[in-house]
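Batch 3, record 17
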Amino acid sequence: AQKITQTQPGMFVQEKEAVTLDCTYDTSDQSYGLFWYKQPSSGEMIFLIYQGSYDEQNATEGRYSLNFQKARKSANLVISASQLGDSAMYFCAMREGNYGGATNKLIFGTGTLLAVQP
Amino acid sequence: GAGVSQSPRYKVAKRGQDVALRCDPISGHVSLFWYQQALGQGPEFLTYFQNEAQLDKSGLPSDRFFAERPEGSVSTLKIQRTQQEDSAVYLCASSWDRGETQYFGPGTRLLVL
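Prediction for the assembled complex:
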């Protein structure tokens, strides 16, 4: 069965520093997608970054980058130059492969609560 | 353009009451998903629509949960005879097609007393 593991319930980081949020996954599929979402206290899930299992380069989106290590089945999120507004819950999610009949639903981890300190 | 919208944002129900939660996906998005998020947990899949067809309802926790999307746009998640364990945030997400990035609405926070 597919599973996402986030082992850090909470993290502190100083403003302007970089932080890495850990994510490991388990799947027997060859084709899959990995996502990170941010959920501030308002509750909305905000899409941050995507990595496909066949992508050779690590994904980057502005201050967000995804450190994808396929052999280790890890997909860590790196946030550079942290800002106070980055304080939120962060979820790693996996989408099953896009083969015929697949729902492509997302499977989420339990999340990491990030607190950025001034 | 507008994102995914959900209504109501908050709902308090007495145990045994029926509730209906609405989701307006991003215009043109074919795929629509419902997720349930318990306090302190990640979202869990409930059901999936491709246009008006409900292709996967494997995550619905009981037959008290029912979802529809009759015209392939707006979707409604209905919970009959609500129980306290139904208290959660119900998130709706849409994508322009199956397998593409899902964009979420703000959620409906349901509290059953």
